[in-house]
Queue: 4 jobs
Job 1
Amino acid sequence: MSPRLLSAALAAALLLAAPASRAADHKHGPTGTYTEWIWPEPPVSPTGKIGYVDFEHRLTPEVDPGSEVGYFWSHQVELVQGDTAYFGLQTRGTRPDGSEGKVAIFSIWNALAARGPGIAQAFGHEGVGYQTFIPFNWKAGRTYRLRMFLSGSSGKGTEWSATVREEPSGRERLIGTITVPKKWHRLGNWSVMWSEHYTGPEILTCNDVGYSRVRFGEPRANRGTIVPERHRNYITDPPNCPNSRVTDAGRGSRQEMGIIR
């Protein structure tokens, strides 16, 4: 199986995981939404490292699903000869004080360490790795720029960081920094943006899937100088509830789940 097909399969597996509501096990479970991006062949650095040094995109939650429903709006990427990373916003995540609320999150599978201004910890579900969270009180209708970038190195390995910036104010916050093995390369030429319903009240009918509508902007690489060659929108196959859809929105996409019929 090619890396691209493996990545798409992994994205589907991640989206179907909803342990709190067991939504994926229910015939009325939510149907995942995806926008896959294919990038030009990545550059090679003077030191022989293959890949891009950063990815960024703009994200606009157009509605607020509410505090009871857990939604994750993510950009998933791959590190060449490494593993999977994702970064995005959640409606219901764990905060440093133990409460639940809106957060920004950054994770890398099979990473070595993490640090950041909020929670930085190892995880052991759906594989192993490290993740960082910060409280982030995003607002429906506002646009945020999320960026993952090569930020340095340490004795342990190579460091990648993620930030979130509110527009148009320009206020930017660090989500965290994660260390990966030095033998890993940089960001590859495939990525996927997705919406995940991961927790909430029990779903008995399709109308119980909380409504989410989010706009993903076209991503860019290498400080905004590179754009993808193409993209495609799709939903979980086979689908569960028929109330999800993905449509083009400008050069990006709009993803909806839990549409009331």
Job 2
Amino acid sequence: MNGPRAVTTIASCASWHTGQRSFELTGLTWTSPRVQMTTPAVPSRNAHQDAYQDAYQDDDLEFGDVHPALVLPREQLAGRIQHTLIGQAITERQVRHHVQETLEHGFDAAVVPPCWVWAAKDELRGTVARIGSIVDYPYGSGITAGRVAQVKAVVDAGVDELDATVNVGFLLSSRMDDFTADVKAIVEAADPIGVKLMLELPLLDARQREHAVNAAIGAGAAFVSIASSASVGIADPATIAFLRSSVPASVGVKASGGVQTVEQVRSLLAAGADLIGTSAGVCIVTGVGTVPGSLYSY
């Protein structure tokens, strides 16, 4: 296979939309158009709620209340999965193999460590696939100047998008202004590359969650996600629904943290996720193989 899978088809017909994102099904063909990965405009909270409600009142939706992600064959979910290889002891050979898996299965993007962005880009020559990377992983506790420098370096290396940790310690210390300034600096440093902020919601109380989400919106984040890894918390439909109802339609929602099964992927997409971040993508879309161990899990 020479490039990422763009479209797959089974029987039936419908369409489903959420803001800038859409599942367009012709004969239940599911394409995977992306949220534009540049700093989005931020509509009002009410505007988002209307768009989200309208998505489930679409007259074109012809198979009841069943979300497409719940009925499509597992291989057709690949376009919503960001195939992730983040961890210790990752080699150039592993990164190149990871990129080839991304192309073979038609994943949304290959996410690799910052030091291997160049190798991933080299492996992708002649294709339209995307490379993502990660900033200040896993703790997000670096000083803002250092985090900004890393962002700029990875952008200069040619990455297409970034997942960035946040400084949870600021929130837990009630240093809300410091948290807001930090995420704003990260997003601005990445411009024009879109940033997905991993908000580590399982570590936060309700007030802290609200501040984290509002700070991400105000900073111009392209996406928000639940957590950076399973060690922080397992992505769950309830938290995805919270994020989807809390951000405007121009901001995407990514589910990451311990996603290892096709059942999880289906439930998270149905709850409102636009993308899934996981190191178990191949197992999920093929139904065979083993989930990567802790050194390479996400």
Job 3
Amino acid sequence: MISPKPDKPSKKPLLKKKRTKTALVFLFIPIFLYFGTYTAINVWKSWGLQDDAPRIAMTEGDGWLTDLGLTTASYEQAMLRAGGFLIELEKPETFDAKLISSILDTVDGLLLTGGGDVDPTLYNGDPDKAIEVNIQRDRFELALIQEARRRGLPILGICRGCQILNVAQGGTLKSIREDAVLGARHFGLSGHSVNIEKQTKLFEIFGSEKLDMVESYHGQALDKLGENVIVTAKAPDGIIEAIEIDSSEEWIVAVQWHPELSIDSEQQKLIEAFLKEAVRRRDKKKR
């Protein structure tokens, strides 16, 4: 009598377990990276920064980058690498000149970050062509810009920060989302080059007339320039990529791209120049 062969164990549960483990690994990798980054940042804040490190006020971000949790972490790591201490400002429900003044009393510079579109009502634009508008943030940043300039604080604008600076000077913006080529070039991982004007602060910082690759994520661009705003860099397609205020007394520089997201050490030069100016102006006031 032939004994029946034992049934072969099914491989399906094993495969299911393997797939579950793989999915969990990929789920927890970004979580570990996220908390690992913040842990490293907090340790560096406590032990790596000098006591007199420049203190930089950063406006609270919004938009898709903030939703991904990248905004604060990316700006903080860029500032810490350059030796600066970042202070994130929450948008107050209401504010007055006294509050704005008290905020800037304790900082050495102002960083205007990326985010949603500037409200078109501030420059007689088309509201239908703007997304993720936050007029409360706009008004808060406009007040900060005005007071920071009155105090002579250096200002660095990044992406949306470049746009709000132009609007603060009476300039306007335009949407580039409707143009498929421009929209893809200026909002994506592929990046693009920029051509830098000589005899500008940006040229002094990079020491070159061209950056081969910058990472930009913007659906709007500068149109009419505001008062005393000069163009310091453009993309090959003509889109304005950087500006500064034409003043020997002020240090106000802004770019449309995101240097804080780049792993290229060349981009770090912009952050370093900003902090160096913040220290120089702070120390000059103490004399």
Job 4
Amino acid sequence: MSLVLQGEAALRTAIGGFYQRPPLLPVPWLAYPLPMHPDPGSPPRPRPGAGRVLPAPARALLFGASGQVGSAVLERLLEAGWEVDAPSREQRAPRRGLNWLRGGFDALPELAGRYDAVLSCGPLDLFARWHAGCGVEAGRVVAFGSTSATAKRGSADAAERELAARLVRAEAIVLRPTLVYGAGRDRSLSRIAAMARGRGVFVLPRGATGLRQPVHVDDLAATALAALTAPGAGGRGYDLPGGEALPYREMVARVLGSLRPPARLVEVPRPVFSALAAVLRAGGRLQGFGPAAQARLRQDLVFDAGPAVAALGHAPRPFRPAPGTFA
């Protein structure tokens, strides 16, 4: 295989959202002894003592229930005995305890006047605007955002930060995960796996050692459910990193090692990688990914798990992808 084809695979994958600007905060989370979840098949982890007392059965309104995070949250809600109303633009098969509501934010059907919990696992901007004028009462509101909105300084990211701030002022809990994996539906690590699986190799520039914290989707779901009853947790945002901070190239190497057969990581000198990117851009085969994006491969993107550990019992597993994780 030519170096150009190998490089194009890596560079096109990079556009999918791997590279964020460094966080504005220091990295004190590394000092926290995270209660890691050692194995995807392990039993549920203990959570902080119950705060809010919920009726039986409790009723939730769940947005984004068909997404990679929402699907995991939905399963945990149903397993815990919740009755769930879930809006969807598509017709979906009914399930015990689950009531699919046909429609989206722009055309929602009639909702209940009150829910024990409202959760959003979809676009934060749409949910925040709906929540501001919905008239639906909720015992607790939990919404997923992104750590990228905290780290980046662009206008779109500033808008998301402001929307998250409005939710926090309304006593909602905003959860900000880092690099999500585990459902095989993300546009980052699963894309790396897909490209490497087809070619047997994946190309990175040497020195891609910036720290990353991939977090498993089921750990996010567990923390979201804990947030529904955690005492005194409302009215703030929580970063939800994974249970391990590791260099970018090591993270990619573990993804490649989980494939069957394993794929090979090829590291080339940075000038070669940069020149290759320039050639691909000039030929219209690559958009963006200039020197700034390449430099971020060497920058640490780590977030503080301490508040989520203390308030919500966030207990992420280390990044040890098994065969089939990225199937």
